[in-house]
Amino acid sequence: MDYKELKLETQLAQAGIRMDEQTGALVSPIHFSTTYQHPEFGQSTGFDYTRTKNPTRTNLERTLAAIEGADYAMATSSGMSALMLAMEIFPVGAKVLACRDLYGGSFRWFDKVEQQGRFRFVYANTEDDMLTLLDETVDVVFIETPTNPLMNEFDIATIARKAKTVGAKTVVDNTFYTPIYQRPIELGADLVIHSATKYLGGHNDVLAGAVITNDQAIYDQLFFNLNTTGIVLSPFDSYMLMRGLKTLKLRMEKATANARDLVSHLENSPHIKEVLYPGKGGMLSIKLQDERKIPSLLNKLQIFTFAESLGGVESLITYPTTQTHADIPAETRHAYGLTDDLLRLSIGIEDVTDLIWDLEQALAD
After folding, report:
1. Positions marked active-site
2. Which domains are assigned to the chain?
3. Is the pTM above the cut of 0.90?
4. C-alpha gyration radius of the chain
5. Are strands 169-173 and 191-195 parallel, antiparallel or unpaired?
């Protein structure tokens, strides 16, 4: 059976398996060589220079494409390099319609390139706003779903369908849900990006990104830019990401189960004003009744780690106001609901009773 026809769990478990015909190695070897010998004049093994193509990275990209239900994938040096690679195929002056609630690093780059005149941006607070604003003047639609950190979901299929009618391309950041919970290409998206540092890697030990598409013309543009800029993932990091992918489904299911139990508890806490959770995945946010308690809470935690990032096996807690979203002006953040009383939690695979205990003791007066 063709690898792409296998079930998702099998594709993940078999990532990189039996790809070395010469030695029969079960696990994909790490090919560190930067250059490759030509068999004869005018011939190539398919690998010439590692910036262009590397066997370990190729094995990883095969898996990334398959699990998203796509034909093409490119592994990049970080999530931000994946975002930039995906967006820079669009022409100067393109109008981009994006969700207002989005990762602070994405906003930082969007804001910079808009100041430079590279793109024009329009932001939508809700899905209804996005559909209303999506007209013939829009060239690109950019969606995070669920959004970061307010956890709002956008209907990819509905938005992508309307985008096609007006000639716009749809780009979806699938970092939070991963292919376990949504496959944007199958829902009509033209491009999918990941900060693979997060759930795809899953162990807070590799920095990586991914860009995925089913459109060969888009792929050709992406590949040209990737080869030209050299923002590729290293062989060792490619191997590490493949290893992390093998347990993606197991980790996502456990994180979801933990998050649901934790949400049920937090919704009854007198210290919590609001719990923001879309119903699946390991990401949630909480708003405290008294934001002045945030420093004390963060300092008292013993199991949750106060740190940036997300998606690892360890539970993390982040204060977007001073960390991930600090580059978004306070007035802008507050206007769409990202207030200073909000904490973002990335739920790991620990025993949920320990996570509940940790939050309870940290919240206690």
Report:
1. 51, 103, 173, 198
2. 3-245 (3.40.640.10), 248-363 (3.90.1150.10)
3. yes
4. 21
5. parallel
